[in-house]
Write a structure and sequence with these properties.
With about 375 residues, this protein is α/β, with parallel strands linked by helices. The protein has a single domain, classed as Aldolase class I (TIM Barrel, Alpha-Beta Barrel), CATH 3.20.20. Helices cover about 40% and strands about 15% of the residues. It is built from 13 helices and 13 strands. The strands form three sheets. Strands 3-4-7-8-9-10-12-13 form an eight-stranded parallel beta barrel, surrounded by four helices. Strands 5-6-11 form a three-stranded antiparallel sheet, with no helix packed on it. The longest helix is centred in the middle third of the chain and has 17 residues. About 0% of the residues have low confidence.
Length: about 375
């Protein structure tokens, strides 16, 4: 971490986590030079053809993306791309604005480089996000839109249909998020019968839309083998384009922090790496070599990103890692991946994919 990053982290950590998050969004929205500094410090290889990933009809300049949850209201996707990310995912966005769960609802576990959150899909709703995404239409850069359901919706599947219809014209891809632990009952939609209906209706909504971006399904890391098998079967049957593995976890084993570990919500960050990567490898095994998979959970270095790819990921995403390593992290990771390709004399990052699937399959869930 650079001196500037350390100073910035110390300043942000003097605020409560949600205020610090708001300040970081404001800094990016106002055009403060964090992006230029991050790129300069990382010496980011901006035109390295070996880092490109072709997936679902999209050309990703590098395999690293910002995960959903940071830019919930589509305020700063272009600024995030300026930090060195190959793509950015905004949301989760629900049809109607909602305030989410009561505060405080974000907790830093500093000793674990982790965060627990129980935000509950707090966002400004479809209309506000659509206005911002419409304003950037035609700009370069891959921006995915993560869609969800309102907590009190009478028909949650209809909320996803609305999200598809609303954002298909603006999204490089759409992500169906049914794996947040912070909306009561939402994860039940991962059960096979409900999932089958959801995916059928989502794909019908896409077919009826003016544009047909790829559709990804984001799943939880806390699933058992039979649940993963059911999800894989439904994804394959319904023609979903890809899977994102994974959202936050309810598990708390092995944590070192003394404060905050008992808080309700989803855990993200370094402790999520092992479980999420083991689930990722299982989904690759179940879905085969052609399915698009994005690996998320505990990515905080080039080494972690590379291991996700070896375990079966085409692309990787991060969020919590940047809280602890600063805005130069994406640039450092991309530069580190390029350096690894140099050392190993590889012509493409895609040559690494699946090389450690068997090792991760051997790890128990």
């Amino acid at each position: 971490m650079s001196v500037l990053d350390r100073i910035g982290q110390k300043l942000l950590f003097s605020f409560d986590p949600e205020t610090a998050h708001g300040l970081s969004i404001a800094a990016l929205r106002c055009g403060l030079p964090v992006g230029a500094t991050a790129l300069r410090d990382a010496r980011l290889p901006t035109r390295d053809a070996r880092l490109k990933v072709s997936l679902c009809g999209l050309e990703f300049p590098n395999p690293l993306g910002m995960a959903a949850g940071y830019d919930k209201n589509a305020e700063v996707p272009d600024a995030l791309l300026g930090l060195g990310f190959g793509f950015a995912e905004v949301g989760t966005i629900t049809p109607l604005p909602q305030s989410g769960n009561p505060k405080p609802r974000i907790f830093r576990l500093i000793a674990d480089e982790a965060v627990i959150n129980r935000l509950g899909f707090n966002n400004e709703g479809h209309a506000a996000a659509e206005k911002r995404l419409a304003a950037r239409k035609g700009r370069p850069g891959i921006v995915g839109v993560n869609i969800g359901a309102n907590k009190d919706s009478a028909d949650r599947i209809a909320d996803y249909e609305r999200g598809v219809a609303r954002f298909a014209p603006y999204a490089s891809y759409l992500t169906v998020n049914i794996s947040s632990p912070n909306t009561p009952g939402l994860r039940n939609m991962q059960a096979r019968e409900q999932l089958g209906e959801l995916l059928s209706r989502v794909m019908a909504a896409r077919a009826a839309a003016a544009a047909q971006p790829p559709v990804f399904l984001k799943i939880a890391p806390d699933l058992v083998e039979v649940e993963l098998e059911d999800i894989a079967a439904e994804v394959a049957e319904k023609g979903i384009d890809g899977i994102i593995v994974s959202n936050t976890t309810l598990a708390r084993s092995g944590l070192r922090s003394k404060i905050g570990t008992g808080e309700a919500g989803g855990l993200s960050g370094k402790p999520l790496f092992e479980r999420s990567t083991a689930v990722l490898a299982r989904m690759r095994k179940l879905l085969g070599p052609k399915m698009a998979i994005i690996g998320v959970g505990g990515v905080d270095s080039a080494e972690a990103a590379l291991e996700k790819i070896r375990a079966g990921a085409d692309l990787v995403q991060l969020y919590t890692g940047m809280i602890y390593a600063g805005p130069a992290l994406p640039g450092r990771i991309v530069a580190g991946i390029a350096q690894f390709l140099n050392r190993e004399n590889l012509s493409s990052i895609q040559e690494l994919r699946d090389s450690h699937v068997d090792q991760w399959l051997a790890k128990p869930l």
